[in-house]
Amino acid sequence: MDYKAYIELVKKRRSVRSFTDKLVSINDLNKIVDAARYAPSGMNSQPWEFIIIKNQQTINHIFSLFNNRIKDGHNSNSLIIVLGDKRKKTMLPGIKFDFKNGSIKFKKPSKFIDSNALFTSSLSSAFTHMLLAATSLGLSTQYISMTSSYEVQKKIKDLLQIPEYMIIYDTLAIGYAAYVPQEKYIKPLEKMVHIDTYNMNICDSDEQIILDKKNHLYTSFMFKDKNTMKD
Ligand SMILES: Cc1cc2nc3c(=O)[nH]c(=O)nc-3n(C[C@H](O)[C@H](O)[C@H](O)COP(=O)(O)O)c2cc1C
Description:
By secondary structure, the protein is an alpha+beta fold. It folds into 2 domains: 3-178, NADH Oxidase (3-Layer(aba) Sandwich); 180-231, no CATH class. It is built from 7 helices and 6 strands. It has helices spanning 3-12, 26-36, 56-64, 115-136, 150-160, 206-214, 220-224; strands at 48-53, 78-85, 95-98, 103-106, 140-143, 166-175. The strands form 2 sheets. A 4-stranded antiparallel beta sheet has the order 1-2-6-5. The protein has a two-stranded antiparallel sheet with strand order 3-4. Strand 3 and strand 4 (103-106) form a beta hairpin. The structure holds flavin mononucleotide.
Protein backbone atom coordinates (compact mmCIF):
# COMPACT_ATOMS: atom_id res chain seq x y z
CA MET A 1 0.00 0.00 0.00
CA ASP A 2 1.36 3.44 -0.87
CA TYR A 3 0.84 6.66 1.08
CA LYS A 4 -1.95 7.82 -1.21
CA ALA A 5 -4.01 4.70 -0.51
CA TYR A 6 -3.22 4.90 3.20
CA ILE A 7 -4.23 8.56 3.60
CA GLU A 8 -7.43 7.89 1.67
CA LEU A 9 -8.29 5.16 4.16
CA VAL A 10 -7.46 7.46 7.09
CA LYS A 11 -9.66 10.23 5.68
CA LYS A 12 -12.49 7.81 4.95
CA ARG A 13 -12.71 6.68 8.58
CA ARG A 14 -15.39 8.63 10.40
CA SER A 15 -17.52 8.09 13.47
CA VAL A 16 -21.07 7.14 12.59
CA ARG A 17 -23.80 7.03 15.20
CA SER A 18 -26.62 5.24 13.41
CA PHE A 19 -26.47 2.00 11.46
CA THR A 20 -28.65 0.11 8.97
CA ASP A 21 -30.15 -3.29 9.80
CA LYS A 22 -27.61 -5.11 7.62
CA LEU A 23 -25.76 -7.61 9.78
CA VAL A 24 -22.00 -7.47 10.08
CA SER A 25 -20.52 -10.88 9.35
CA ILE A 26 -18.51 -12.72 11.98
CA ASN A 27 -15.84 -13.07 9.32
CA ASP A 28 -15.47 -9.28 9.11
CA LEU A 29 -15.50 -8.91 12.90
CA ASN A 30 -12.72 -11.47 13.15
CA LYS A 31 -10.72 -9.61 10.51
CA ILE A 32 -11.07 -6.41 12.53
CA VAL A 33 -9.77 -8.09 15.69
CA ASP A 34 -7.03 -9.80 13.71
CA ALA A 35 -5.75 -6.37 12.62
CA ALA A 36 -5.77 -5.20 16.25
CA ARG A 37 -3.44 -7.92 17.46
CA TYR A 38 -0.65 -6.64 15.19
CA ALA A 39 -0.75 -3.23 16.92
CA PRO A 40 2.34 -1.92 18.72
CA SER A 41 2.34 -2.27 22.53
CA GLY A 42 4.69 -1.25 25.35
CA MET A 43 7.45 -3.89 25.66
CA ASN A 44 5.29 -5.97 23.27
CA SER A 45 3.09 -6.75 26.27
CA GLN A 46 -0.02 -7.16 24.06
CA PRO A 47 -2.30 -6.47 27.04
CA TRP A 48 -5.51 -6.81 25.01
CA GLU A 49 -8.34 -9.29 24.66
CA PHE A 50 -11.60 -8.80 22.79
CA ILE A 51 -15.23 -9.73 23.23
CA ILE A 52 -17.26 -9.75 20.03
CA ILE A 53 -20.95 -9.30 20.81
CA LYS A 54 -23.50 -10.27 18.18
CA ASN A 55 -26.36 -11.24 20.47
CA GLN A 56 -28.93 -8.44 20.12
CA GLN A 57 -30.33 -8.99 23.62
CA THR A 58 -26.88 -8.53 25.12
CA ILE A 59 -26.31 -5.40 23.02
CA ASN A 60 -29.67 -3.99 24.15
CA HIS A 61 -28.83 -4.84 27.74
CA ILE A 62 -25.53 -2.96 27.50
CA PHE A 63 -27.21 0.11 26.00
CA SER A 64 -29.87 -0.01 28.72
CA LEU A 65 -27.10 0.49 31.31
CA PHE A 66 -26.53 4.04 30.08
CA ASN A 67 -29.90 5.21 31.47
CA ASN A 68 -30.68 6.97 28.20
CA ARG A 69 -27.59 9.13 28.54
CA ILE A 70 -26.51 7.97 25.09
CA LYS A 71 -28.95 7.08 22.40
CA ASP A 72 -26.53 7.24 19.49
CA GLY A 73 -25.38 3.93 18.11
CA HIS A 74 -28.04 1.99 19.99
CA ASN A 75 -29.19 0.33 16.76
CA SER A 76 -25.85 -1.34 16.05
CA ASN A 77 -25.90 -5.12 15.70
CA SER A 78 -22.25 -5.73 16.57
CA LEU A 79 -19.99 -4.58 19.35
CA ILE A 80 -16.36 -5.29 20.10
CA ILE A 81 -15.26 -4.67 23.67
CA VAL A 82 -11.53 -4.15 24.06
CA LEU A 83 -10.25 -5.45 27.37
CA GLY A 84 -6.92 -4.63 29.00
CA ASP A 85 -5.27 -7.28 31.13
CA LYS A 86 -3.87 -5.52 34.21
CA ARG A 87 -1.63 -8.53 34.91
CA LYS A 88 0.31 -7.71 31.76
CA LYS A 89 1.47 -4.49 33.43
CA THR A 90 3.98 -6.78 35.11
CA MET A 91 5.85 -6.71 31.80
CA LEU A 92 6.21 -2.92 32.03
CA PRO A 93 8.87 -1.08 34.03
CA GLY A 94 8.13 -0.24 37.67
CA ILE A 95 4.80 -2.07 37.99
CA LYS A 96 4.03 -5.40 39.56
CA PHE A 97 0.66 -7.12 39.57
CA ASP A 98 -0.05 -8.86 42.85
CA PHE A 99 -1.38 -12.15 41.48
CA LYS A 100 -2.70 -13.19 44.91
CA ASN A 101 -4.57 -10.03 45.83
CA GLY A 102 -5.25 -8.73 42.35
CA SER A 103 -3.82 -5.29 42.97
CA ILE A 104 -1.22 -3.24 41.17
CA LYS A 105 1.97 -2.43 43.08
CA PHE A 106 4.50 0.14 42.07
CA LYS A 107 7.84 -1.54 42.65
CA LYS A 108 10.04 1.44 42.20
CA PRO A 109 8.21 3.96 40.07
CA SER A 110 10.32 4.46 36.99
CA LYS A 111 11.72 7.96 36.69
CA PHE A 112 11.78 7.61 32.96
CA ILE A 113 8.62 5.79 31.94
CA ASP A 114 4.97 6.18 32.91
CA SER A 115 3.92 2.54 32.69
CA ASN A 116 0.22 3.22 33.23
CA ALA A 117 0.32 5.49 30.18
CA LEU A 118 2.11 2.74 28.25
CA PHE A 119 -0.67 0.31 29.11
CA THR A 120 -3.41 2.71 27.98
CA SER A 121 -1.54 3.73 24.83
CA SER A 122 -1.09 0.09 23.88
CA LEU A 123 -4.85 -0.48 24.09
CA SER A 124 -5.45 2.71 22.18
CA SER A 125 -3.18 1.56 19.36
CA ALA A 126 -5.13 -1.73 19.09
CA PHE A 127 -8.32 0.31 18.93
CA THR A 128 -7.00 2.45 16.09
CA HIS A 129 -6.07 -0.65 14.11
CA MET A 130 -9.66 -1.83 14.48
CA LEU A 131 -11.07 1.49 13.26
CA LEU A 132 -9.01 1.41 10.09
CA ALA A 133 -9.63 -2.29 9.45
CA ALA A 134 -13.39 -1.72 9.74
CA THR A 135 -13.17 1.21 7.31
CA SER A 136 -11.22 -0.90 4.82
CA LEU A 137 -14.08 -3.43 4.92
CA GLY A 138 -16.69 -0.77 4.10
CA LEU A 139 -17.95 -0.68 7.68
CA SER A 140 -18.46 2.26 10.03
CA THR A 141 -17.67 2.58 13.72
CA GLN A 142 -18.53 4.45 16.86
CA TYR A 143 -16.69 4.56 20.17
CA ILE A 144 -19.00 3.73 23.08
CA SER A 145 -16.78 5.09 25.81
CA MET A 146 -19.36 5.01 28.57
CA THR A 147 -18.71 1.27 28.87
CA SER A 148 -15.42 2.07 30.60
CA SER A 149 -16.94 4.36 33.24
CA TYR A 150 -16.72 2.90 36.74
CA GLU A 151 -20.39 2.03 37.31
CA VAL A 152 -21.21 0.78 33.81
CA GLN A 153 -17.98 -1.19 33.58
CA LYS A 154 -18.82 -3.04 36.80
CA LYS A 155 -22.23 -4.02 35.44
CA ILE A 156 -20.87 -5.16 32.07
CA LYS A 157 -18.18 -7.20 33.78
CA ASP A 158 -20.85 -8.98 35.81
CA LEU A 159 -23.06 -9.49 32.77
CA LEU A 160 -20.30 -10.96 30.60
CA GLN A 161 -18.39 -12.71 33.42
CA ILE A 162 -15.25 -10.72 32.79
CA PRO A 163 -12.58 -11.42 35.44
CA GLU A 164 -11.49 -8.80 37.93
CA TYR A 165 -8.00 -8.36 36.45
CA MET A 166 -9.45 -7.15 33.13
CA ILE A 167 -10.44 -3.55 32.52
CA ILE A 168 -12.82 -2.44 29.81
CA TYR A 169 -10.71 -0.04 27.79
CA ASP A 170 -13.46 1.00 25.37
CA THR A 171 -16.15 -0.45 23.13
CA LEU A 172 -16.65 -0.19 19.41
CA ALA A 173 -20.05 -0.31 17.75
CA ILE A 174 -19.67 -1.54 14.19
CA GLY A 175 -22.13 -1.53 11.33
CA TYR A 176 -23.15 -0.21 7.96
CA ALA A 177 -23.64 3.57 8.11
CA ALA A 178 -27.23 4.82 7.98
CA TYR A 179 -26.07 8.28 6.89
CA VAL A 180 -23.09 10.18 5.55
CA PRO A 181 -21.35 12.18 8.28
CA GLN A 182 -20.92 15.91 7.77
CA GLU A 183 -17.47 17.12 6.92
CA LYS A 184 -15.57 18.00 10.06
CA TYR A 185 -13.17 20.80 10.85
CA ILE A 186 -9.56 19.69 10.60
CA LYS A 187 -7.01 22.04 12.04
CA PRO A 188 -4.48 23.06 9.37
CA LEU A 189 -1.05 21.45 9.42
CA GLU A 190 0.74 24.79 9.70
CA LYS A 191 -1.15 25.52 12.95
CA MET A 192 0.22 22.43 14.68
CA VAL A 193 3.66 21.57 13.36
CA HIS A 194 6.69 23.13 14.98
CA ILE A 195 10.12 22.74 13.43
CA ASP A 196 13.07 22.34 15.80
CA THR A 197 11.63 24.53 18.58
CA TYR A 198 8.15 25.37 19.82
CA ASN A 199 6.84 28.34 17.88
CA MET A 200 4.47 30.46 19.99
CA ASN A 201 3.31 32.31 16.87
CA ILE A 202 1.38 29.34 15.56
CA CYS A 203 -0.16 28.11 18.79
CA ASP A 204 -3.76 28.80 19.79
CA SER A 205 -4.19 31.64 22.28
CA ASP A 206 -6.38 31.04 25.36
CA GLU A 207 -8.98 33.34 23.80
CA GLN A 208 -8.96 31.39 20.55
CA ILE A 209 -9.59 28.09 22.35
CA ILE A 210 -12.51 29.58 24.27
CA LEU A 211 -13.91 31.13 21.10
CA ASP A 212 -13.58 27.86 19.15
CA LYS A 213 -15.40 26.04 21.91
CA LYS A 214 -18.15 28.66 21.95
CA ASN A 215 -18.53 28.43 18.18
CA HIS A 216 -18.52 24.61 18.25
CA LEU A 217 -15.77 24.72 15.66
CA TYR A 218 -14.61 21.23 16.56
CA THR A 219 -17.85 19.61 17.64
CA SER A 220 -20.60 21.22 15.59
CA PHE A 221 -20.68 18.35 13.08
CA MET A 222 -21.82 16.03 15.86
CA PHE A 223 -25.08 17.93 16.03
CA LYS A 224 -25.35 18.34 12.27
CA ASP A 225 -24.81 14.60 11.70
CA LYS A 226 -28.46 13.95 12.32
CA ASN A 227 -29.49 16.18 9.40
CA THR A 228 -27.82 13.91 6.91
CA MET A 229 -29.30 10.67 8.19
CA LYS A 230 -30.98 8.55 5.53
CA ASP A 231 -33.65 7.09 7.81
C1 LIG B 1 -10.98 8.33 23.12
C2 LIG B 1 -12.22 8.61 22.33
C3 LIG B 1 -13.46 8.41 22.90
C4 LIG B 1 -14.63 8.64 22.17
N1 LIG B 1 -15.84 8.37 22.73
C5 LIG B 1 -16.96 8.51 22.00
C6 LIG B 1 -18.23 8.12 22.53
O1 LIG B 1 -18.34 7.64 23.65
N2 LIG B 1 -19.33 8.29 21.75
C7 LIG B 1 -19.25 8.80 20.48
O2 LIG B 1 -20.27 8.91 19.82
N3 LIG B 1 -18.06 9.16 19.94
C8 LIG B 1 -16.92 9.02 20.67
N4 LIG B 1 -15.69 9.34 20.13
C9 LIG B 1 -15.65 9.80 18.73
C10 LIG B 1 -15.31 11.26 18.62
O3 LIG B 1 -16.41 12.06 19.01
C11 LIG B 1 -14.92 11.51 17.18
O4 LIG B 1 -13.79 10.74 16.87
C12 LIG B 1 -14.58 12.96 16.91
O5 LIG B 1 -15.71 13.76 17.14
C13 LIG B 1 -14.06 13.15 15.49
O6 LIG B 1 -14.98 12.66 14.53
P1 LIG B 1 -14.63 11.47 13.53
O7 LIG B 1 -14.37 10.24 14.34
O8 LIG B 1 -15.81 11.33 12.62
O9 LIG B 1 -13.38 11.85 12.78
C14 LIG B 1 -14.53 9.11 20.83
C15 LIG B 1 -13.28 9.30 20.26
C16 LIG B 1 -12.14 9.04 20.99
C17 LIG B 1 -10.79 9.18 20.33
